[in-house]
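Researcher: Let's do a round of design. I'm pasting the structure tokens now; please hold your answer until I've finished.
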């Protein structure tokens, strides 16, 4: 039986979640001749991140489905002024010119008028912390745009999105890697950097740009214009993920993994999924998984399999028991079995 959304996600509580949505009948409505719609989805996610109190940890836009891993921060909205709430809402709902249909920014008068309405502000403040509103806007807009392009009506998405609670850092790291490796698992590409419309590609590109900047400063400092050199130094100091609109690795993994370690972990795992490497994790990466309480022997099996990060929640025994108690259930099913402290997937709540 499907778990009611209100049990999995409570907008007033911070949490991390794996969100999945499929096209109707699992048709390739974002693939083949409609490949450009994958870019629509990526841009839509990027735009909404600027407005919502929701961090996107990674994502993968496939031909017939969408994965997003998010971290919510509802307390962040409480620090926003009424004017800031109105400005953020204006990013999501720009003014449309009646004659040209072009989207435009809200005027200062529009923002001031909304900011002066406490009831309006509190309603929007709550929505800007809501995962349901985040997905609702994203999916509705893509569906309308695609239907208009195809000159059809009806459903674009197959029902509501599915959500899985990620209860600890190990669950978040594992789910991020699982999502980032989707194109390789589907045999669409052979390397993570070739995975278009994914969070892993954005991280790799940012890391490569950072390394080029460092190389310029180290190898030819005298040959670089002073202004260019100062800009390069500033970028180098800001770190390899500066400027990314998705959350940095350290924030995404609760400080457990930096970007280099995470990218190497994904890269090594991706090599095994291609089928041309032996199925083991290098010795220097195994302790990283062990530190996260991830069962190393199960890691590759989970990364190879489809549908493992569905279910209801992923986490260590203590977190699953706590989650089951919170939901008023006898147990919560974890379909991954990836945690080192668990050998059974259904964890009953004891008296």
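Researcher: That's everything. Go ahead.
Model: Designed sequence:
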């Amino acid at each position: 039986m499907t778990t009611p959304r209100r049990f999995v996600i409570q907008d007033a509580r911070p949490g991390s979640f794996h969100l999945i949505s499929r096209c109707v009948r699992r048709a390739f409505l974002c693939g083949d001749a409609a490949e450009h719609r994958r870019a629509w989805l990526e841009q839509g996610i990027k735009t909404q991140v600027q407005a919502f109190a929701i961090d996107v940890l990674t994502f993968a836009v496939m031909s017939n489905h969408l994965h997003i891993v998010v971290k919510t921060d509802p307390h962040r909205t409480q620090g926003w002024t009424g004017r800031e709430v109105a400005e953020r809402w204006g990013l999501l709902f720009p003014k449309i010119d009646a004659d040209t249909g072009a989207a435009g920014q809200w005027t200062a008068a529009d923002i001031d008028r909304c900011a002066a309405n406490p009831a309006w502000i509190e309603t929007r403040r709550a929505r800007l912390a809501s995962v349901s509103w985040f997905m609702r806007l994203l999916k509705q807009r893509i569906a309308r745009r695609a239907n208009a392009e195809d000159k059809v009506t009806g459903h674009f998405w197959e029902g509501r999105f599915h959500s899985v609670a990620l209860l600890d850092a190990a669950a978040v790291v594992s789910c991020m890697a699982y999502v980032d490796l989707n194109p390789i698992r589907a045999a669409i590409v052979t390397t993570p950097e070739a995975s278009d419309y994914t969070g892993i590609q954005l991280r790799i590109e940012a890391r490569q740009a950072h390394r080029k900047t460092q190389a310029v400063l180290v190898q030819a400092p005298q040959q670089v214009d002073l202004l260019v050199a100062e800009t390069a130094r500033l970028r180098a100091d800001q770190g390899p993920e500066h400027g990314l609109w998705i959350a940095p690795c350290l924030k995404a993994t609760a400080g457990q993994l930096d970007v280099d370690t995470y990218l190497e972990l994904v890269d090594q795992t991706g090599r095994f999924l291609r089928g041309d490497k032996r199925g083991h994790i290098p010795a220097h990466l195994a302790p990283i998984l062990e530190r996260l309480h991830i069962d190393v022997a199960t890691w590759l099996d989970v990364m190879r399999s489809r549908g493992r990060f569905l279910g209801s929640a992923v986490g260590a025994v203590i977190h699953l028991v706590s989650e089951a108690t919170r939901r008023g259930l006898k147990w919560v099913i974890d379909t991954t079995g990836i945690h080192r402290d668990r050998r059974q997937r259904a964890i009953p709540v004891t008296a």
